[in-house]
Amino acid sequence: MVDRRFVGHLHALRLTLADPRFTASAAPGVLVVDPVARPALEAAVVRAGAVLPDVLVDFVEAEGVVPRRPELGVLVAGVPADGPSRAEAEGAVAAVDGEKVRLRSAVKARDGFTTTFLVSPYSKYLARWCARRGFTPNQVTTASLLVALVAAGFAATGTRTGFAVSGVLLMASFVLDCTDGQLARYALKYSKLGAWLDATFDRAKEYAYYAGLALGAARGGDDVWALALGAMILQTCRHVVDFSFNEADRPAAAAGGAGPGPAGPQGPGTSPAAALSARLDKVGWTVWLRRMVVLPIGERWLMIAVLAALTTPRTTFTVLLAAGALAACYTTAGRVLRSVNRRTPRTPEAARALADLADTGPVAAAVARVPAPRAVPAPVWAAAGTAALLLTVLLTGTGSWWAVAAAGGYALLSGAAVSRPLDGRLDWLAPPLFRTAEYTTVLVLAARSEVNGALPAAFGLVAAVAYHHYDTVYRIRGGTGAPPVWLVRAIGGHEGRALLVTAVVALTLGHGTVLTLALAVLAGALALAVLTESIRFWVSSAAPAVHDESGEPQ
Q1: pLDDT tens, 73-94?
Q2: What Gene3D superfamilies does the record point to (predicted)?
Q3: Is 90 helix (H, G, I), strand (E, B) or coil?
Q4: What does the CA dihedral 405, 410, 415, 421 come to, rounded to 10 degrees?
Q5: Chain centroid to CA 209: how far?
Q6: Partner of 322 at 20 to 30 A CA spacing, among 185, 293, 384, 510?
Q7: Residues 23 and 65 sit within 8 Å (Cβ to Cβ)
Q8: Nearest in space to 293 (alpha carbons), one of 213, 238, 233, 228
Q9: Which alpha helices (DSSP H) does 220-347 contain, by range?
Q10: Strand-pair partners of 77
């Protein structure tokens, strides 16, 4: 509904009427509701006895539907009461270039240094070019994936020219990756399928490129599969730290409590770490330095592309691991410092999100039926199980049944960690610890087995499991909860897979390439299960149209 007296920018109307992510939206002189909220609108018309949007807004809210009001900034939207007011409003419209504002708003307000200064200044024009020719964000996203896969193919040739071309193509893929989001914001074309593509393709592109570099190095006689798998594990665990911390605090922030950043008097915003961060934000160069230190996707891909083109895959992965470890220490330490000063309890929604991120299988779930002593926090149980498992795998002989026993102990301690709600100050550390234990166990066992092809198969296995964990995160972000319990139980949970992998290594080691075959079959079965259910969900009507607008490092 648009008041016929409306005066304003076309993009103000577009922001209100054309964004499909919201049940209802309103601006001065404008009101729109989707079919779900139509009964509320009809009831509001009956009660108000009028059809003017500005009158109906309050009545629609009274029916329980709160319209979203887009941030218009300098854009004009209004309903002038008389001729002079109308002339003034028209003058205000003429004074502001609406297309320029639209183009500027297509770029995230907060992003990394590389994206902000080296890509967005021209990718936004590419986004507009795509919009004017009818290209959709999903098409651009798919093009970005294809370019990245071609880059991985060039890297796999193992030639100096192949590595150089792969680096150029990787950055071209990143430009398209920025363009798809800018196109979605410019044209307001958000979709459920686009949410899924955007959430998963970045990881698929990066990890496929890792595999390409490892294949290329192998052609030159250098086996770097352990480094490639280590880089994937480190990056995935870093993401789990980000997701776990943010999801733990987001429900509290939404409820008016304390979330990340500035918060109420009892929230983490009053911690010394948060206070220092706020002071540093006032010094411009430190803002960009801190955004670069955390190694977001733009900086990371630029570094990988340059190193791949100019050096060797081994050097590329070594530098990537060192920079990633520094970034992981920096971000994790800061979040721990914020959390230890937290004085408000986490909400039940936060505890539920952390429980979903834990990815608990049937063994740990059975143990969790008996509550662990409250005096021992969940991260202590998780850290104890992780340390016991990894130390055993590292210190005992490859294929030892002691590793299987340690995996059994890990399952018991994991169950104790999730036997109570994860609502403690540091309970968000439990999911990252579980990811570290599971992924690193696979890496160490495959690397120490010295079986031909075991490490590439392990790479595929960890990639399949990591996809499941990323899928869980983006479902939670969309407010639909984790994947169904039957799927989590069917693929074993983190502790079940740790038990299975240690047992497979113990049973197959010394039988040639049977271990490689077993890991490959396991990777294929897991990938088939999680991809089938994930695709079914994301193309269904229950899937949310979620797009990352946070500017958080990726």
Answers
A1: 999 999 999 999 999 999 999 9
A2: 1.20.120.1760
A3: helix
A4: 170
A5: 19
A6: 384
A7: yes
A8: 238
A9: 225-254, 272-280, 284-293, 297-310, 313-340
A10: 8
